[in-house]
Design goal:
The chain is an all-alpha fold. The chain is elongated and about 95 Å long. The protein starts with a helix and ends with a helix. 1% of the residues are buried. It contains 3 helices and no strands.
Amino acid sequence: MAETNEQFISSSKTYVQALEELSKQAFASFEKLVDLNLAASKDLLASAFSYAQAVLGAKDAQEFQSLQVGYLEQMAEKSATYGQHFFTVATSGGAEFSKAFESKLSEVKSVFADTLETLLKNAPPGTETVMAAFKNAVSASQDIIEAAQSSAKKAMNEVESNFTSGVNQVNKAAAAAANATKKR
């Protein structure tokens, strides 16, 4: 029984270490998104004040219209760039997290399986039925986790595809709006 306790403690330590690593990765991705948003907000504010100063200094309607077109083009470009950066940070962080999660989950499952086997071997006589039911329940839960992982991967791929499509549509719409404004 001492061997089982040691294995349980070992598997618990492995689980906590894996959780710590995953938490650090998730937090690092979150920090990157916060940095990106702060930089974008600062840039947007600077652009807005610069535009306001330029508009207040416009000498005629033609210059005002030219400033508007330039500002719209600039905002469309910045929006597209922001979307691409956001997408890159989010997907790379998600991909790294998923990869690490799968790796750590594999380690934890292996240690847990070893612990379970030792527990089953050292089970008191007469508990074979209970232990078999427990083993089946663990196996079923692992199958559910694997199915959930597969579904999450498919959902992430779909979100990634939809986001890319959305960014492309926004870029096209911004370009069309800028062109329409230029023609006026």
